[in-house]
Specification:
Layout lengths: L6 H12 L3 H10 L3 H11 L18 H7 L2 E3 L10 E8 L3 E2 L2 E2 L4 E10 L2 E8 L6 H13 L6 H4 L17 H15 L2 E9 L5 E3 L6 E3 L1 H6 L5 E4 L2 H6 L13 E2 L5 E6 L5 E5 L32 H5 L9 E4 L9 E3 L7 E7 L4 E9 L6 E10 L14 E8 L4 E6 L19 E4 L8 E4 L2 H8 L15 H10 L1 H8 L7 E6 L5 E6 L12 H4 L12 E7 L8 E9 L13 E6 L5 E5 L29 E5 L10 E5 L8 E4 L6 E3 L16 E9 L5 E9 L16 E7 L7
Parallel strand pairs: 1-34, 10-15
Antiparallel strand pairs: 2-35, 3-4, 5-6, 6-7, 7-8, 7-9, 10-11, 12-13, 13-14, 14-15, 16-17, 17-18, 18-19, 19-20, 20-26, 21-22, 23-24, 24-25, 25-26, 27-28, 28-29, 29-30, 31-32, 32-35, 33-34
Length: about 725
């Protein structure tokens, strides 16, 4: 195997304009001092001692010559590990009551809206139950809910795949059983709104107000009053009567929300929730008028829990949106602002200044996804007024174009924008997905060579509007926004490496994006000049954090500069010591916080030969997922400092500070993802070949839990995704 990026290769590739920022050079300076001195300095600056990780890191204070002995044996704990002097309490767990429903499954982003007097609303996203989650979900469901699912019906599906649910005979007893399982699963996705207060000891607890509620597909099916609705141009597509494709007969009403991943709290006290990977349940490609393909386009696969839309008759074009929720309005079940585009939404960041348009940034979490910017048509007179929600109904959606010299510009996804497609030769995987050239068919086509793509698009027209149909301009614009990812490919936006969370600094105007991993896909992949390795084109699994600055930090700016802030990777390669950055948060002192999202199938997987193991599997060395503090100023500028380690097989999510910075909310999701319930405290000893910080390889024996019992930590208890509040035991500020 060719080696991972090292810093020297990275700088050579990116050049001066996009090389590591000065913050990373400060990290090099820090490593030149004694680690014990560094650790002492950190303790004097921050109110905690950095955690000892599963592998050597400079912040541990352990010198390179002592690391081999200190890390020869390591025990991974099935718990949320915090620095000495910190504690956490569980605020809500899967299955807890919320209104007339329950707290959902894999909790992700937390939107905090404080209402004063130590009280607040928490708007929590519930991401998924499908893919690798479904086995553990089915295993633990009876223990959490105290009733059984009729999951024997799933094993009766011939060949393990149900292509068309409606083809089942109504007299088939399994038909309703399958639907009941899917209804339960969709009830565990979506959004929870819960009310909380802070106790005298600093812990946050539920208050169970009448505002508590769930926003989900199942709830919306059972009660039409709980449907979401849409605004913006795509609503004209939803409401039209002569659709080319599937008709759900709901107009601009939507059956709830699902696959809700990250998001943000707006300056006006609402929460934007991101609908991410909807394509596992309903078709993403659409007809040329923006209407959906039939529900049976995505089959139901019980082994993975995919294809819920096939069972419930979901229109695919109604998912993948920005969903705004006002937690204080108990009648609000979500507004889908279609002007912000439909794609695998991950996160939002808001730039809102008096007497200027509102800008909202977001990313598309796929291996060749884009970064987007919405600019409102009108300006806000008061950035904190709830009337700003109306400004999200009209404006322009843009996609980012990165240049190798560190500059960039925003491409409008509008009917008049010239077609300038991303070419297969431009991306690492040499495959690009485009709107299908036969627009009577709709959908998409994958291209593996430039000539075929150019030939097809040469006869389709000059602009994006030529690729879509409608009875008027609004319908055409709606179709473009519904097909936003493929429209952005057609317009030539830069393909990025899984853009996940983003954070906007209102003071500096800097925008931070976490690119989780530079990876190759069979459909779309990252741009090779911007994010690839020119020397060998290897993907770079640990990922990176990128800083973007719009000109004059203006919401209406159409040009920007960018640079890489930090690269993930091993300290022995002069990198940050983490892999796969995901959720981001800025604290009141300007520090950047980050949690990692290493795939649970890679966590603590044995590494016995570094020369033959894949770049991806090498991530086993990092142990469990973790949370990090990244200073943006001062003596430790650019150093990554470990703060928390998640439970077994979990992903750490959330990252939301209270206004007084005495509480950090976190949401560990899918503990025990692959092995389910940890039975009788089962564990396994595994071998790892890891490196000291100065590059010497040595063998480590690591004791790894098999499954999880978190958060109860009781023998044979089911693992449950949960929301926790983290605080110092002395109840002082965290940072």
């Amino acid at each position: 195997m060719k080696s991972l990026f090292d810093r020297r290769k990275f700088i050579k590739f990116f050049g001066a304009g996009t090389a590591l920022a000065s913050s990373s050079l400060a990290f090099t300076y820090s490593m030149n001092r004694k680690f014990a001195e560094l650790s002492k300095a950190l303790i004097n600056r921050y109110p905690w001692k950095p955690l000892k990780l599963s592998f050597p890191h400079p912040t541990s204070g352990i010198e390179p010559e002592d690391q081999i002995i200190s890390y020869a044996y390591h025990e991974v704990e099935d718990d949320l590990i915090l620095p000495e002097g910190f504690t956490y309490n569980v605020v809500a767990s899967w299955g807890d009551p919320v209104g007339d429903s329950r707290y959902g499954f894999n909790n992700d982003h937390i939107g905090l809206v404080e209402t004063g007097n130590n009280e607040a609303y928490l708007v929590v996203n519930h991401e998924c139950v499908d893919f690798d989650n479904f086995k553990t979900y089915l295993q633990t469901f009876p223990m959490v809910m105290n009733y059984e699912l009729p999951d024997e019906a799933l094993s009766n599906i011939q060949g393990g795949i149900l292509k068309d649910y409606n083809s089942l005979d109504d007299n088939n007893p399994d038909k309703e059983k399958i639907k009941s399982i899917v209804m339960e699963a969709t009830e565990d996705m979506g959004i929870s709104v819960i009310s909380v207060k802070k106790k005298n000891n600093g812990d946050w607890v539920r208050t169970y107000s009448d505002k508590d509620r769930r926003i989900s597909i199942a709830s919306a099916i059972n009660d039409p009053k709980k449907r979401s609705y849409s605004t913006g141009p795509a609503s004209s597509v939803f409401n039209k009567k002569n659709k080319q494709g599937f008709e759900d007969d709901l107009g601009n009403e939507c059956l709830g929300s699902y696959w809700n991943c990250s998001g943000t709290t707006t300056p006006w006290g609402t929460v934007l929730s991101a609908e991410e990977y909807y394509a596992s349940h309903a078709p993403e490609p659409v007809r040329s008028d923006g209407s959906s393909f039939p529900t049976n386009t995505v089959p139901f696969i019980p082994s993975m829990g995919n294809g819920f839309g096939n069972i419930l008759g979901l229109a695919g074009n109604k998912y993948g949106w920005a969903v705004e929720v006002d937690p204080s309005n108990k009648e609000d079940y979500g507004t889908k602002h279609t002007m912000l585009g439909r794609y695998f939404h991950e996160a939002f960041a808001v730039n809102s200044k008096k007497d200027m348009p509102i800008a909202i940034y977001s990313g598309c979490d796929r291996k060749g996804g884009h970064i987007y910017k919405f600019i409102s048509e009108e300006s806000t007179s008061n950035p904190k007024s709830k009337t700003n929600s109306k400004l999200l109904e009209a404006g322009t959606l843009y996609a980012a174009k990165f240049n190798t010299d560190g500059s960039g510009y925003w491409i409008p996804l509008s009917a008049g924008t010239k077609i300038n497609p991303v070419l297969p030769s431009e991306v690492i995987g040499s495959v690009v997905s485009m709107p299908h050239p036969d627009r009577s068919l709709g959908g998409i086509k994958k291209y593996e060579d430039d000539v075929s793509l150019k030939n097809d698009f040469a006869v389709l027209g000059d602009s994006l509007g030529d690729l879509y149909t409608g009875d008027n301009e609004e319908e055409i614009q709606g179709a473009i926004l519904i097909d936003a990812h493929f429209s952005a490919n057609a317009a030539g936006a830069t393909s990025c490496p899984r853009p996940e969370d983003c954070e906007f600094d209102e003071i500096s105007g800097e925008l931070y994006f976490a690119f989780t991993s530079i990876d190759v896909s069979s459909s779309d992949s990252p741009n090779k000049e911007i994010f690839g390795n020119k020397e060998d084109q290897d993907a770079y699994q640990p990922g990176q954090i990128v800083k973007i600055l719009d000109d004059n930090a203006s919401p209406s700016a159409l040009t920007f500069t960018w640079e890489t802030l930090l690269m993930g990777g091993e300290p022995s390669d002069d990198q940050s010591g983490w892999a796969n950055p995901d959720n981001l948060e800025l604290d009141g002192k300007g520090n950047l916080w980050m949690v990692t999202d290493i795939g649970s199938d890679k966590l603590n997987q044995s590494v016995v030969d570094r020369n033959t193991i894949s770049n991806s599997n090498l991530r086993g060395i990092y142990g469990n997922n973790s949370a990090w503090l990244i200073p943006r100023s001062g003596e430790f500028l650019g150093l990554s400092i470990p703060f928390a380690i998640g439970p077994s097989e979990s992903e750490l999510c959330g990252l939301e500070f209270s206004k007084d910075h005495k509480t950090l909310f976190l949401t560990p999701q899918h503990p025990g993802l692959f092995n389910g319930i940890r039975k009788d405290m089962a564990h396994e000893e595994r071998e790892f070949l890891i490196k000291t910080t100065d590059g010497k390889e040595f063998k480590q024996i690591r004791r790894v839990p098999i499954g999880s019992n978190w958060p109860s930590k009781k023998v044979n208890d089911p693992p449950k995704p949960s929301l926790v509040s983290v605080r110092r035991k002395d109840n002082q500020i965290i940072i």
